[in-house]
Write a structure and sequence with these properties.
Blueprint (H helix, E strand, L loop, with lengths): L1 E7 L12 E7 L7 E10 L28 E8 L9 E4 L6 E5 L4 E2 L16 H14 L6 E5 L4 H12 L3 E6 L2 H9 L5 E4 L5 H8 L4 E6 L3 H8 L2 E9 L18 H5 L3 E4 L9 H13 L7 E5 L4 H9 L6 E5 L5
Parallel strand pairs: 8-9, 8-11, 9-10, 11-12, 12-13, 14-15
Antiparallel strand pairs: 1-2, 3-4, 3-6, 3-15, 4-5, 5-7
Length: 334
């Protein structure tokens, strides 16, 4: 048997294209002491992967040419040399875009597919949703009656961030690309409003949706969107930097807002990575399942079939063609 992998074939120039990736048939990996051999069932497709495809990446280190594309994934244990896992266990970890992976036991977390269907452990209960939880509950901390604005509101992280803000009693105003996405954010996810950043009167609509100003900005985009929101922050507002997708395909920094309002408005600007809060995952899973059961938290899924289609799914996701969490179902018999 061979292990089908998707590797980085070349570094993208600007927006990535499927030709930047290659399919590679590697030998089946062999687990060593305390390792676990996992068959991948679903793999995650995330915007944060794009900066790592550059030759230099301060985010989490660059992906080497010819290396497997790294990502969170779900899988089933095939063979275990660890006493903590046994064949048939459903697990999650950073397996990458490949059919099989050998993972140290301490890099795995068991999931219970009786509590939620397997794909939900990448969408509603996955890293993107957990990132939203940390950013809102730990850093933004919106209070009842405050207004939270979240960019990329139809995406896997933004959609959850806005819903959690509403659970906390705040108003949620989303920013997304296009009328269809904005309608989804309001009608399906329950945001108070959603604005199309492409609309010529976007700034006027932002003012109308936030008549009392903005208390928390959950920022996923940067660039022009961040500048518009930043100018409307209230005194003691919080700007939570989760991502800057507007810069991912560029080799230059986007022009940011003037920081002078941060001085006279006493703003707090804080970036974060969810990996520093992994000890709170069990807490998040319990709360997310409870909120979902109450009908207060949901997450759309866009599932692409077949490992070979992961590059195209990634490129389309970055171009904004999907709603919610994008993932790939990996075929069992390759």
């Amino acid at each position: 048997m061979k292990n089908l992998q998707v590797v980085l074939g070349r570094r993208p120039s600007g927006a990535p294209v499927p030709e930047d990736f290659e399919l590679f048939a590697a030998p089946m990996p062999v687990p060593g002491e305390d390792d676990v051999l996992v068959r991948t069932t679903y793999l995650s497709v995330d915007p944060a992967l794009r900066p790592r495809m550059n030759a230099v990446s301060a985010y989490a280190g660059p992906v080497a040419i010819g290396a497997v594309i790294p990502s969170p994934a779900l899988g089933v244990v095939i063979r275990s040399l660890s006493p903590h896992f046994r064949p048939g266990d459903h697990v999650t970890g950073f397996f990458g875009w490949q059919a099989y992976a050998v993972v140290p036991a301490d890099g795995l977390r068991q999931i219970d597919i009786d509590r939620a269907p397997e794909p939900k452990w990448l969408s509603l209960l996955g890293l993107s949703a957990f990132t939203a939880y940390v950013g809102v509950a730990e850093l933004g901390r919106p209070r009842p009656g405050e207004t939270l604005v979240v960019s990329a509101a139809a995406g896997a992280t933004g959609a959850v961030a806005g819903q959690i803000a509403r659970i906390f009693g705040a108003r949620s105003v989303g920013i997304a690309g296009g009328p269809e996405k904005c309608a989804h954010v309001v009608d399906e996810l329950g945001f108070d409003a959603c604005l199309d950043y492409r609309a010529p009167d976007f700034v006027e609509r932002l003012d109308a949706a936030c008549p009392a100003g903005i208390d928390v900005d959950f920022e996923n985009v940067g660039g022009d969107v961040l500048r518009a929101v930043f100018d409307r922050m209230n005194v003691a507002g919080r700007v939570i930097l989760c991502g800057l997708v507007a810069e991912y395909n560029s080799d230059q920094w986007a022009a940011g807002p003037s920081l002078w309002p941060a001085v006279y408005k006493s703003l707090r600007i804080e970036g974060f990575r969810a990996s520093r809060h992994f000890d709170r995952i069990p807490e998040f899973v319990d709360k997310a399942l409870a909120w979902a059961a109450e009908g207060r938290l949901r997450q759309s899924e866009h599932i692409v079939e077949g490992l070979a289609n992961a590059p195209a799914a990634f490129c389309q996701m970055l171009a904004g063609r999907h709603l919610g969490k994008v993932m790939v179902r990996v075929e069992e018999n390759l």
